[in-house]
Amino acid sequence: MENRTSDIATSHTNSHSGSFETHPKGTQARILLTSVFGPYAQDDEFGSRSINPMELYHNQVTRAQGSFSLRMFHRSWGIMMIQANISAPCAVLDFPTRDDFARELKANQYDVVGISSIIVNVAKVREMCRMTRELSPQSVIVVGGHVSAIPGIEKMIDADHIVRGEGIAWMRRYLGEDENAPIKHPAIVSGMRTRIMGIRLPERKGGTAATIIPSVGCPMGCNFCTTSAFFGGKGKFVNFFETGDDLFEVMCRMETELKVKSFFIMDENFLLHRERAMQLLQRMKENGKSWTMSVFASANAIRKYTMEELVELGVSWLWMGLESPQAGYSKLQGADTRQLTRELREHGIRVQGSTIIGLEHHTPDNIMAEIEHAVSHDTDFHQFMLYTPVPGTPLYQQMSEEGRMLRDVDYADVHGQFKFNFKHAAISREDSKRFLDWAFWRDFELNGPSLYRISRTLLAGWKRYKDSPDARVRERFAREMGRLSGIYSSALWAMERQFRKVDREVSDQIRALRGEFKRESGIMSRMLPAVLGPVLLWTTRREEKRLARGKTYEPPTILERSNWVEA
Ligand code: B12
Ligand code: SF4
Q1: 13: pLDDT confidence band, cut at 50, 70 and 90?
Q2: What's the per-residue H, E or C state across 85-101?
Q3: CA distances from 379 to 75, 124, 195, 308 (A)
Q4: Contact, 198 vs 539, CB < 8 A?
Q5: Mean pLDDT score across all residues of the chain
Q6: Which of 44, 123, 376, 389 would you label with 517, given CA atoms 20 to 30 Å apart?
Q7: Which residue has the higher pLDDT, 308 or 565?
Q8: Burial of 468 from C-beta contacts in 10 A (0-12 / 13-18 / 19+)
Q9: Of the residues 76, 85, 146, 190, which should be mutated to test ligand 1's pocket, given the most ligand atoms within 8 Å of the CB?
Q10: For the segment 272-327, what is each residue's pLDDT rounded down to a tens digit?
Q11: Atom of ligand 2 nearest to the CA of 218
Q12: Nearest alpha-carbon partner for 456 in 306, 351, 354
């Protein structure tokens, strides 16, 4: 395993070159860490795009599902991680407007302003550097995150330091702290302001999973993969928590602090590190922990486990790349992904597939069949993304050398949900968008709302494991089923009616599933739909109308201070 203090985090220093410079005030320096400003889901001159909202599901997974789309926001975990691991007074400003950012700069004398951004938001970084120079001229400006991989970024923005790769070690070093000190994991609630079918779900303590970030990067090194490339590329990654024991401790702490039993494991390929996962399982068993985990993993990594091991580990949600088998990615080697998906779902594991549109071998003649193949996996969720050479990746390097990168494509449009940013051998830029949109629509039309699909997988898991000899496993399924069966049944009642106009067959399948829920679950599930079902149908239809009028959602602005002393 790569040590997290490897030489991965490098920095370009605009003002000085040569040896590493530390801040003169060290840990007394006052730090502001901020994400880029919103609003996001609109078209503007700073690179916001209405088709690129600050949302995960609605941006790239359920965006064609109308009122059934899962809407939620996620905090900027990178800067939260940095804040938790420095002892200087630090404020994290998440999702500010320009006014919020200006106000914060003026209200406090910051010594360092750290801006976190990905590539699409480079124009916002430029503007935030400009604003900082004007409103807080004494501040040193540090820019980090994926935006730093843009070639020539030094000339595009007015920053003092541009940090590539892992930022905790860099910031600790900059403040003169021990960069090798153990990582302290902040308490992170994974999502917020969740909406579906026109209602915002209540937020109660422990109701939403905690995010755990065991490592960053991925050693598989797929040619297009920006996270892998950013943290060292093939064969490398940066580990925050080496062992299953370390992870177990962090998770216990989160269980107590956030009152959760459910974890979103933010690791590009969590299951690849089998030794760590199995040690974690061992500790969970010894301590009777009935936890639930959502993980990312490649098919070849999943194959290292039996279904029982995955279930015992509490894996209930799995995000897996389904790239075309003809593309030859080693992460898929030997895997029949359709069979694997079916099997996982039969064991109650919700699968989120991820398919790339516009691979090198795709042509207008074969792309429909490839999309049909992807959709036939019948995953619970399906992300589609355009093949996109992103700065910093081997693919970008190769395309640049071949002279195939398109000039004049605004970085704000390089997010994989619009049009190609390179010259494809067989598919035009315009068609790339048509095929992408069709893939989303086809998946929705054929397989129905994701909410229906996850209810089906949950029920399959419950039926299989409700009498499991392992008390931890029994408890987990009973917990999910007990809490959700009435809600799911009511949602199915409404979905069945609303989906009739999209596809009668799917509507009938939803009805059949509702019948099964009725048979399998308790009194709430039988009674609740009569009351809640019509309400949900009404809110769903109201939401459809709102969306048709162009309604969008934005994350709230959040300001959190640590080690703070008033100036
Ligand atoms: C959570 C997430 C989101 C959240 C938003 C989070 C937020 N508040 O911004 C949501 C779901 C909304 C989202 C949306 C999008 N995302 Co996103 N997202 C992620 C995800 C899954 C996790 C990010 C994370 O927390 N990682 C863990 C932390 C610890 O790592 P980190 O953020 O990189 O931070 C480290 C370093 O980068 C650095 N660092 C970061 N900031 C700073 C700041 C300073 C000052 C310093 C010194 C260092 C530093 O230090 C940190 C600790 O090591 C990543 C994938 C991934 N595995 O990282 C994609 C990822 C960041 N997203 C990506 C993309 C493309 C998007 C979208 C365009 C959607 C899309 N079409 O794919 C939209 C953009 C929305 C918008 N309008 O801006 C790409 C970025 C590609 C690139 N090269 O720019 C990634 C890498 C996914 C991928 N593999 O393609 N995303
Ligand atoms: S397996 Fe997934 S995370 Fe790892 S390099 Fe490939 S695409 Fe990236």
Answers
A1: low
A2: CCCCCEEEEECCCHHHH
A3: 26, 36, 21, 20
A4: yes
A5: 91
A6: 376
A7: 308
A8: middle
A9: 146
A10: 899 999 999 999 999 999 999 999 988 888 999 999 999 999 999 999 988 666 76
A11: 4
A12: 351
State the average pLDDT over residues 483-496. 85
Residue type at 100?
A: D
pLDDT of 331 reads 54
Q: How far apart are CA 63 and CA 552, in angstroms?
A: 12
CB 121 within 8 A of CB 151: no
Could you give the C-alpha distances from 467 to 288, 462, 463, 477, 478, in angstroms and in order? 17, 9, 8, 10, 10
Q: Which of 32, 118, 383 to mutate to test the pocket of ligand 1 (most atoms within 8 A of CB)?
A: 118
Using CA of residue 269, residue 272, residue 276, residue 278, what is the dihedral sign?
Answer: positive
What is the chain's length? 567
Please report where in the chains the tokens 């995000």 appear, as a residue: 319
Contact assessment for residue 288 and residue 474, using Cβ atoms and an 8 Å cutoff: no
H-helix or E-strand spanning residue 487: helix 471-498
In the chain, how many H helices and how many E strands? 19, 18
Rounded Cα distance, 125 and 16, in Å: 21
The two tokens of residue 332 are: 């898929």
Strands, E assignment, 255-411 = 262-265, 292-296, 315-321, 350-357, 381-386
118 CA distance to ligand 1 middle (Å): 6
Could you tell me the two tokens for 254? 């989160």
Q: Which H or E run includes 542?
A: helix 523-548
Contact 271, 344 (CB under 8 A): no
Residues facing residue 362 across a β-bridge = none
Which residues line the pocket of ligand 2, CB cutoff 6 A? 218, 220-222, 225, 227-228, 268-269, 298, 321, 331
Residue 56's CB is within 10 A of a number of other CB atoms, namely: 16
Q: What count of other Cβ atoms lies within 10 Å of the Cβ of residue 205?
A: 10
Q: Is the CB of 267 under 6 A from ligand 1?
A: no
* Helix ranges, 187-298 (H): 226-230, 244-258, 274-286
Residue 43 to residue 410: CA distance in whole angstroms: 13
Residue 26: CB atoms within 10 A of its CB come to 13
Tokens 């900027």 -> residue: 76
- Strands (DSSP E) along 342-390, which ranges? 350-357, 381-386
List Cβ neighbours of 521 (8 Å cut-off, separation of 6 or more): 481, 485, 486, 489
Cα 205-208-212 angle, rounded to 5 deg:
110
